[in-house]
Amino acid sequence: MISWTLAVFLLFLSLLKIVQKKLAASVSDSSKATPGPWKLPLLGHLPFLGFFPHETMLKWKEKYGPIIFLQLGSYPAVVINDGALIKAAFVLKVQPFRLYWLSLYFFPNWLIENAVRISLLELLAAGVDTNSSTLEWLIYYLVKYPQVQEKAVEEIHAALGTNTFPRYSDRVNLPYCEALLLETLRKTTIVPLSLPHNALEDTEFQGFLIKKDTLVLGNLYAAHNDPKIWADAGSFHPERFLDDNGKLNKMEAIVMSFSTGKRKCIGENLARNQLFLFAVSILQNYRLQATSQLPSERGVLGITLACESFQ
């Protein structure tokens, strides 16, 4: 009788221990779950993102913090709304977070054979649509802020005159023009969200559990509008990139219009060089002004965040 009672008691203790472990694991998992807004069945958060999802995600940051979970239809996703954390994910955590399209290929030979083709396509995409959109925004801001335009023109004429064609090497002598381009890239963020990365395995990031096959997106728009980093982020102010001596400061390194990390846009240098030559050539020879009312700075979101047409 005693042995039977003891056996039942030991069984009860064992079951109690198992239940305690399950509860502890449940609490641990819930404490690591990435916070996010309420979602609909099947559609998830898609209906709530609106026409400017990067702005919506930034608003959610105020309530849920810089790392939020979204269900994009059938795709679970984590959005990072902080520049430093985006760099931490895509630079320090580069191995578990791979570009989504790379994780779709299971045949290394195919990938190797087509690597050059893929790179050329990326360069073409980076150099055509993004550059044209950025140039449109640059013209928009030069027209809207004539004092900025005049300051850039004065610098160009002082360094190059009116007959010397600009070269890449002239960038060091035109710091205000460089700051003007950087502020245009920051203010517009024509690609507001980074290309989706994919979690290759369950990964803990900043105390949150990001499960395998979750999409990871960096909200570059949020990074460029963080009031802790950018004073008066809503204003167009090229001087924020210049030090007291009129030279470029360290703020240039924080701009991530071309994303960040090992897999950032491979066309960044090409695009920035082209933008510099276009901008300096235009300002060296023309004065820009609008003959119609300027549209909203909000733009129109398509493949890129484009400026609305004006004359």
Automatic annotation (TrEMBL):
Classification via InterPro entries: Cyt_P450, Cyt_P450_CS, Cytochrome_P450_fam2
Record key words, sorted: Heme, Iron, Metal-binding, Monooxygenase, Oxidoreductase, Signal
Gene Ontology biological process terms in this record: organic acid metabolic process; xenobiotic metabolic process
Protein name, per record: Cytochrome P450
Family indicated by similarity: Belongs to the cytochrome P450 family.
One Pfam family from the record: p450
GO molecular function, one term: iron ion binding
A GO CC term attached to the entry: cytoplasm
Secretion signal, residue range per the UniProt entry: 1-24
Protein species of origin: Allacma fusca
Transmembrane segments: none
